[in-house]
Design goal:
275 residues; alpha/beta; Rossmann fold
Amino acid sequence: MSYFEHAGCQLHYEDRGHGEAVLLVHGLGSSIQDWEFQIPHLLQKHRVLAIDLRGHGRSGKPRERYSMAGFAADVAALIEHLGLSQVHLVGISMGGMVGFQLGVDRPQLLRSLTIVNSGPEVRAKSAGDWWMLAKRWSLSRLLSMDAIAKGLARVLFPRPEQAELRAKVEQRWPQNDKHAYLSSLDAIIGWSVRERLPAITCPTLVVTADRDYTPVALKEAYVRELPDARLVVIERSRHATPMDQPERFNAVLDEFLAQVAPSQPQQENKDPQSC
């Protein structure tokens, strides 16, 4: 296990393999474990980095107000800690939001950006939006982590053959620190970088499930606002696409990374203490 300190928090990360660096950023209430079906696959051709964001996984859980800008600053600090000039960043859900934030704050750090079931804003634009956000905010405070886990598992993996995936959510989710989880949720609600999307000039892949929380049309709309972006829809998938459709997702990501690879391999010095 590897750690580094940034802004008063010990941050856990993994650094394995060789080749161009692909940095994986998990979603709300999750950890590096989000990528269990991607890391072994990506290691065949890439140096794979993954981080537990502050408040998550094995990273520290400071009692403070979290923000998307702060999460992105932690990711930027990891890139600089490892002496990398650029990475291919892949983020799911809240991790995708962190990718957007990093893309507008520090675009020079991104060789490419892959956004999975996410968007550049979480703002209420209708009465229905206000109701849904208020309901989520309230239930997250009222329910135990065990209760949230059981409900989430049924939503993410509803099919009978997905029992093993449901069990993973039910086992992992209660391990969250409730205060850190709520602080992270608060960082999401009301956040937006939508008006700054033209700053993200690197090649961008947007992957959406056909049955994600938000409709495909919303992703199509913001993809049109990005200078160099493409959209891929994965069928029979919900919000946890890398877990419920790993083969299809890995193939889509492989194709994109091959297309955006530089003509000359980048030579990066790997931290000799990383493992």
